DNA sequence: CCAAGGCCTGAATG
DNA sequence: ACATTCAGGCCTT
């Protein structure tokens, strides 16, 4: 476990745990390279830029022509959220408190919206290992190569929307994305044409309005929408509900969110639900039930509910065993 | 509105 | 070995 970014609270920036942040399922095109001395560099693709992060301090640079790295100015790790104080805004129940204590330095990465959209369309009904391979192949096939030197060598920028919009479904499918290829092409066409305008969507004040805009994108359902909103559209109250989160909410927040029969839900990831278990509000999430759940969750966890989601998600995965983690 | 079933793929499981 | 399951869902019926 590395904590970084200064020792004290109050005085300097709050700490940031780069490894936890990079390994929490938010991003897929980052990898670490051993520094010459102690520590790691993290190299990643962020839209049409290649970034490098100091694994100890979180200091972020962007690659410029001519082999230079210059300071990245977009607050990648959201220091402006004042992360050290976010736990105060959350409920003080035991589970949330434990997640905050263990993962308070796990940040939310401010991502490029188009890349984020394609990434999470690709993620649906998939797994991290495969998603990483899919996106890497898309970048290699449709993204411009950049030699950043150092230990990272040649990286590929994320494909521009025009590149994936102009590709054939077959070409996209050859990256291993299966039936999602058509969604990726169509969604890219919508971005290219301006039908999807992330700059405009980002300005929407109402969660429901923004959700409606996201659900108009092919391949985007509620869960993927929440990921895109949380990671790239400044919706920090977005709370992606996937199987893992449903399990956590059912087993550890049953009192709060009204899931019945929580004792019947095993903590083992592959356990099959009991065939005779009673229906729960958190099972078979339809759009309507998903939104209702969101409202209760946002009310309970507060304006930074998305951070709680990330911390709880990481805690659940870590406690279930680390075999899911992608090996790079 | 809701429930059920299909869907690419490949690593993991039996 | 070989078949089945399942993975951080979405879409259509």
Describe the model:
This protein has helices at residues 18-22, 94-103, 113-123, 128-142, 161-166, 169-177, 180-193, 198-202, 207-215, 222-232, 243-252, 254-257, 287-301, 305-319; strands spanning 30-34, 40-46, 49-54, 60-64, 68-71, 145-147, 154-156. The protein has 14 helices and seven strands. The relative contact order is 0.12. The protein binds a DNA duplex (14 and 13 nucleotides) through residues 25, 120-121, 123-131, 134, 173, 176-181, 183, 218-224, 227, 240, 242-245, 269-270, 284, 286-289, 313, 317, 324.
Q: So what's the overall shape?
A: globular
What order do the strands of the largest sheet run in, or round the barrel if closed? 1-2-3-4-5
Largest sheet: 5 strands, antiparallel
The count of helical stretches stands at: 14
Secondary structure class reads: alpha+beta
Range of helix content: 40-55%
Element-level helix/strand string: HEEEEEHHHEEHHHHHHHHHH
Rounded mean pLDDT score: 88
Radius of gyration: 20 Å
Number of strands: 7
Indicate the multimeric state. single chain
The low-confidence runs, each spanning 5 or more residues with pLDDT under 50, are 1-11, 260-279, 323-328
Q: Cα distance, first to last residue?
A: 18 Å
Estimated share of beta-strand residues:
5-15%
Topology:
Blueprint: H1 18-22, E1 30-34, E2 40-46, E3 49-54, E4 60-64, E5 68-71, H2 94-103, H3 113-123, H4 128-142, E6 145-147, E7 154-156, H5 161-166, H6 169-177, H7 180-193, H8 198-202, H9 207-215, H10 222-232, H11 243-252, H12 254-257, H13 287-301, H14 305-319
Helix pairs in contact: 2-14, 3-7, 3-10, 4-6, 6-7, 9-10
The chain binds a DNA duplex (14 and 13 nucleotides) through residues 25, 120-121, 123-131, 134, 173, 176-181, 183, 218-224, 227, 240, 242-245, 269-270, 284, 286-289, 313, 317, 324.
